[in-house]
Design goal:
alpha+beta, 38% helix, disordered C terminus, 230 residues, disordered N terminus
């Protein structure tokens, strides 16, 4: 490697133009780049005291990094971990700590913070999402309303005008109901089911009796297709 002097870092670093690009790219930290300037200034002037006064650092700090520096390994200028080599290990067993904390909670001495208690209550109250389940084999369909099949159909009226038809049919009574939506989404399906389940006047216009289960055909188009029950 050849030494190329630069106006920023001087001639101590072999290939200092590459070091400049490393600093710009963030390969070395700002602290390491600052210590690199110390070494560069010291190499150009050869006076440690002058370097310490110029950068406002102590002589002890400068000599410590001077002894650690290596022109061929810039990682030596990075700050290391301040964690002690020998860390004190807990002498009490985990079972004993849990037993003591349990007794303190029972006596009312150890109380959980309010935010932790509210977070636990929120997790308990959170409702799990409900999904459709597969229709079991041998499901009895005898009376009207025992099973209503729901399917969708894409209607392309024009090149840029699309509608999705949600249709429902009672397997026993053969009563039909249909509505169209602009999008084929779960929200549209929920609106259609709400339209079918609506009590009073809307229900009398669509289905003769309230239905127990709704089967999604999932594009099969047959009454015995293995769909999901909502």
């Amino acid at each position: 490697m050849r030494i190329r002097p630069t106006s920023t870092y001087g001639a101590i670093i072999p290939g200092s133009d590459c070091v400049t690009s490393l600093v710009r790219q963030g390969t070395i930290s700002r602290e390491a780049a600052k210590r690199l300037r110390w070494m560069d200034h010291y190499s150009r002037h050869g006076n440690a005291r002058l370097t310490c006064r110029y950068f406002g650092i102590s002589a002890q700090t400068f000599y410590r990094w001077l002894n650690r520096s290596d022109p061929y390994d810039l990682r030596r200028l990075e700050s290391g971990s301040h964690r002690p080599i020998k860390v004190r290990q807990p002498e009490t067993k985990v079972e004993v700590v849990e037993r003591v904390m349990k007794r303190l909670r029972a006596r009312g001495v150890l109380v959980e913070p309010e935010n932790v208690r509210l977070a636990k209550l929120a997790r308990r109250r959170r409702r799990k999402p409900r999904y459709a389940i597969r229709m079991p084999r041998g499901y009895p369909v005898k009376a009207p309303g025992d099973l209503v099949q729901v399917d969708t159909l894409k209607l392309a009226l024009m090149s840029n005008h699309v509608r999705y038809q949600f249709s429902a049919r009672d397997v026993v009574s053969r009563w039909d109901a249909a509505r169209s939506f602009r999008r084929q989404t779960s929200f549209a399906a929920a609106l259609f089911l709400e339209y079918l389940l609506m009590a009073g006047r809307s229900l009398k216009k669509t289905l003769p009796t309230p239905f127990a289960q709704a089967q999604c055909l999932c594009g099969k188009g047959e009454s015995d297709a293995p769909g999901g029950i909502l």
